[in-house]
Amino acid sequence: MSKYKAVIGLEMHCELKSNSKVFSSAKNSYNETPNDNIAPVDMAFPGTLPVVNKKCVRDALMMSIVLNCETPEYMYFDRKNYYYPDLPKGYQITQMDAPVGVNGHIEIECNGKRIPVDIHDIHLEEDAASLDHYYDTSCIDYNRAGVPLLELVTEPCLSSAEEAVAFLEHMRSTYKYCDVSEADTKKGQIRCDVNVSIMDCDATELGTRVEIKNINSFGNVFDAINYEIKRQSELKMQGRYDEVEQETRRFDEESGTTIRMRSKVDSIDYKYFVDPNLPKFKIDKEWLEEIKKGIPLLALERKDKYIEELGLSDYDASVIVKEREYAEYFEECLSLGMDAKIASNWLTTQILGEINREEVNLKDFYLTPSLLKQIIDEIKKGTISSKQAKEIFYKAVEEKKEPKTFINSDMAQISDRGELESLINKILEENDAQVEQYKSGKDNLFDYFVGQVMKNTRGKANPVLTKEILKEKLDK
Ligand code: ADP
Ligand code: MG
């Protein structure tokens, strides 16, 4: 619609998973009780000293490798100085000069197409405390102070809200595949700043960028970008592009608009300097190699494998690789000897349908791959029809009992030709009027006869054989 081209750059913050915080021994876990997960370091008590968490450094390096970044030879931290009540030290420990990764790139998928995304840098830092605002008072909760945070900054290389969200989804999945974060937006573990500008399609210089800070859901990222593109485009079309200022805005969920907070021109000088309390250390090459070896096969790599080696459709493969736990469930099915397409069908329809309905994680789902196999084996043996299989599936899930407890000999499909023929003869005799109509051209009555056979056998008639016999008898 627009004659302008949008340019988007993202800053994505993601909290890392770890036992203790990034610079203190306080617990790093979701905690409803305020000021419970705290250590003197998080409170900036005089005389306390930070100690860097090795696991967090490892995870940060792993993400740097995944993003094809250059890793530094030495690692150290910088102080970003500013005052705010959620920052008791008066500075945030972050990385400015030597981030864990710079100049990276990664491929993502958007609307079925692979696109490259350039990474400016990725760095390890600490989260600030959180402020809870009430009617006439505000409370500070230091549980979040010192929680490890990875900040990922892309180059201005994305060109639509769809691409931006695809990138964020891709990264969320990657963090989870690498098991470095729960990456749960609902728990506020992912927060984004979005930078948006527009330019003429043939222009070479980037337009003025507007930054929208601290967006906490991907849906809001999508809406904020589209709103901003529209707002800037309208101003430009009216010849008022000089009103697009380099500024920081926030997204207002209620109105779906962005609102100016402050100008970016007079941006704060953080007076960065190297944190003298955290000695510089060398990153061992062997350690890097070891971290690299620990990187699992990621979503898109698995997807390609499922399509090329197992013959899954693009759609099914996408659904399965969306979450690591789906892919692992699927691969466990394969290792138990299940057919890939059959396992994929059960997973993408029945199983994901159930876990979404029950709002549970697949790893907590009652029907494990080996229990699913009980059902699939019986279909293969012909003991049960696929319709019965689904009923057994739901019963097993609901009553949390092994599928085989619901499978009994009297479910067996009727696949005996003689038995079916005599049954069908009887049904056709009882429905002679419909048989007449069918023979005089009402072809669609065929399904009616199939239905009658199923009704009479409570769904146990072998459907293929039933149709075959019916055709023989009716069309002769
Ligand atoms: P700051 O520290 O002020 O946030 P950075 O230089 O770190 O600024 O840039 C932040 C983000 O802004 C990056 O993600 C970058 O890709 C993006 N960005 C820079 N210029 C533009 C532009 N003209 N349009 C859109 N995004 C931009
Ligand atoms: Mg920024």
Commentary on this structure:
By secondary structure, the chain is an alpha+beta fold. The protein is 38% helix and 20% strand. An 8-stranded mixed beta sheet has the order 5-6-9-1-10-11-12-13. The longest helix is centred in the middle third of the chain and has 20 residues, at 218-237. The chain is elongated.
Overview features:
476 residues; alpha+beta; 8-stranded mixed sheet; elongated; binds adenosine-5'-diphosphate; binds magnesium ion
The average pLDDT score comes to: 94
Total number of strands: 15
Uncertain spans = none
**Which molecules are bound in this entry?**
adenosine-5'-diphosphate, magnesium ion
Gross morphology: elongated
Supply the number of helical segments. 14
Q: Rg, please?
A: 30 Å
Assign the structural class, choosing from mainly alpha, mainly beta, alpha/beta, alpha+beta, or little secondary structure.
Answer: alpha+beta
